[in-house]
Write a structure and sequence with these properties.
Elements lengths: L1 H10 L9 H21 L3 H18 L5 H28 L4 H29 L1 H5 L1 H34 L9 H13 L5 H19 L2 H13 L7 H11 L3 H6 L2 H13 L5 H33 L4
Helix pairs in contact: 2-4, 3-4, 3-5, 4-13, 5-7, 7-9, 7-14, 8-9, 10-14, 13-14
Length: 314
């Protein structure tokens, strides 16, 4: 019985290579319980994601108030929302109910939370801080730039995790996409008259998301093209997969630092100190430095792997 539950729980995880420590200790076990309850009640992963979105928005609103006890309620709601965000993916893996719409919603979920959080921080500082009440434009500029950086950080962290999963679990165990295949799919749906307004919007958003990921990872795209040319139909040799995993695994810690958990640790800390605007500053400095370093390391790794293919090592 216990072994069966343990195996079932492990099936709900993406991969031990890509899981973050706090997730393994807290969010994944809690998410698994939510996922099993949702499966029993017949609730879909997308429904859980939508519930998580509303919980996260409610949490963000509560960060507007200067009273710490209200902020703590907001923190609790945000933790609850993230446990749901974990549960939707775990439920999808347990039941095999994957969908691109689910991936789009899951990607938007955290962005929507932080839009609510950013707006609450701006309004809070504008209302309760003498300096920012007379320099509100500073907050808006910081928030907009931070939001753009945050979106890129999260996008690249997700992209590198999916690339890693592609090599260790294959195409079926990864959600790695590319703009060419997405365009072909969109064109096919349009020509067949099978694409509605919501589908058209969601696919356009996802296409733009994927295009941004590819734009800042040229060496990775070169590696993908070279592998497709040399090993069609996903016939990549095991030796190459093993070498890729060995090189990519140390970089997963950077993708995890740029995930939800470390952002919220920073957010909760600055709120406890009564200076939530400092969150923008940390995002713009520390997290951006990590982003640049992560991209540099990953691109260098991909160039070395392309060279090894050219040298005939595989």
């Amino acid at each position: 019985m216990i072994r069966g539950l343990r195996d079932d729980y492990r099936r709900s995880l993406k991969s031990m290579d890509t899981e973050e420590g706090i997730d393994l200790v807290f969010y994944r076990p809690v998410g698994y319980l939510w996922a099993r309850l949702a499966a029993y009640l017949g609730i879909s992963p997308n429904t859980i994601t939508i519930m998580a979105i509303f919980l996260g928005i409610a949490a963000g609103v509560l960060f507007y108030f200067p009273e710490l006890w209200i902020n703590v309620i907001g923190m609790s709601l945000l933790v609850w929302a993230n446990s749901f965000d974990s549960a939707d993916g775990q439920l999808a893996r347990l039941t095999g109910s994957y969908s691109r719409l689910g991936r789009i919603l899951d990607g938007l979920c955290g962005d929507i939370w932080f839009v609510a959080i950013y707006i609450s921080i701006i309004l809070r500082e504008n209302t309760f801080s003498p300096f920012f009440s007379s320099h509100v434009w500073v907050l808006w500029v910081m928030a907009v730039v931070t939001g753009i950086c945050h979106a890129q950080q999260a996008a690249m962290a997700d992209y590198y995790r999916q690339f890693h999963l592609y090599f260790i679990k294959g195409a079926d165990g990864s959600e790695l996409d590319n703009t060419d295949s997405l365009k072909r799919q969109i064109d096919a749906e349009r020509s067949g008259g099978r694409i509605g307004l919501w589908r058209r919007i969601s696919m356009a958003v996802y296409l733009g998301y994927t295009r941004r990921q590819e734009a800042v990872s040229p060496a990775m795209q070169s590696l993908r093209r070279e592998l497709q040319r040399r090993f069609p139909d996903n016939g990549i040799p095991k030796a190459f997969r093993d070498d890729f995993r060995r090189s990519s695994l140390p970089l997963m810690k950077y993708t995890n630092i740029l995930s939800f958990n470390w952002r919220t640790i920073v957010l909760f800390t600055v709120i406890f100190f009564g200076q939530p605007w400092l969150y923008f500053l940390v995002e713009l400095t520390v997290f951006n430095v990590l982003l640049v370093y992560m991209i540099y390391r990953h691109e260098r790794m991909c160039r070395k792997l392309v060279n090894s293919l050219d040298d005939g090592q595989y």
